[in-house]
Structure prediction request, 411 residues.
Amino acid sequence: MKNYNLIEKCRISGNKDLIKILDLGNQPLANSLKINQSEVKQKYPLSISYGKESSLIQLNETVNKEILFDHYVWVTGTAEATKKYSSIFCDRVTLNTEANKDDLIIEIASNDGTFLKPFLKKGFKNILGVDPAKNIAEIANKDGVKTLPKFWQSDLAKKINNEKGSAKIIFARNVIPHVSELLDVIKGIQIGLSNSGSGIIEFHYSGKILEDLQYDSIYHEHLCYFSIKSMTYLLNQFSLHPYHVETSPISGGARVIYFSKTIKKKSLGLKHAIEIEKNEKINELSTWQNFANKVTIHRQNTLDILNTLKGKKILGFGSSARSQTYLNFCEVDNNQITAIVDNNPLKVGLFAPGSSIPIVNLLDGLKLKPDVIFILAWNFLDEIVAECRSKGYRGKFLIPFPNKPFIQKNK
Prediction:
């Protein structure tokens, strides 16, 4: 049974002007953790192309969303840095929008409700989360964050609009690049948003992927990799107009774009971001072709370092989705890495797909007496290093990104 479709048109322009950039081979789904080490997971092609008209970088394959998201193991509130950012995000949203305490606020793909909780604390009572993962939505509802266990789409937006009225704020963090029915999702935002409201999309920024060589962020859940230009192209098709942009610490560097149904004056931040994209040629084909060449070199650099560590016990840290792309592309498995530490209890006791590396908690990982800790969730580097040191680890760290992998010695 074929559980994916090959996409031959640009996901936002509809044009057949795609140019293939990078092929990462056949890979298991990044979040399809194994119950036992011998379990065999289906693999799917994983590659990206460039759209000439829209400048969008997109995945060439779409795996059925029911397979990807019905039961999910990523919990937003796992990382302390994420929980801290949720309060900062709330402050920024209330500063840059015109929401009152009685206005409806909707989060698309709200996960466990981490980013809606600060709004509740500020006195916004009319909030609603929408998330397709039934197990995660149940967690949110138990925590007092009203959450619908559904996929966001235009029909649902109409239903919510009829029952609750239009929303003053609709935000979607790290989700728009995940959706296969992308145009319908944006249409849903356009339907659900009030005329004086603000839409907010946080997305893993293609410029940051280029800057840090973050090919580990390419996996089957991420169908699109947006720049300011390509995101604006998408929004404009639904008469939605960007007016402000901010940076986010999430995913190793993201952007948060604000938009509305009315045309507002562009902020200095947005004007500056547009200018940077032009100067750094972020939306040009040759830039992405160069990126693909660097990825091949990075893979070899990783294998060279691991070769120097033969005979040493290596413990991974962070069985994140991005780590699966990286490990499987480099063909690193449980022969090189003894185990991977993860702070998400839903993952502990399972095995990484493809590499078959067991996932453990930190205390059990340190009992293995590792010589090196391989920080796979490198976007939480400082938090992980501090946690390991606090538990008595005094050894070295192998840090794969940004750019060239290196060993950070004990300070």
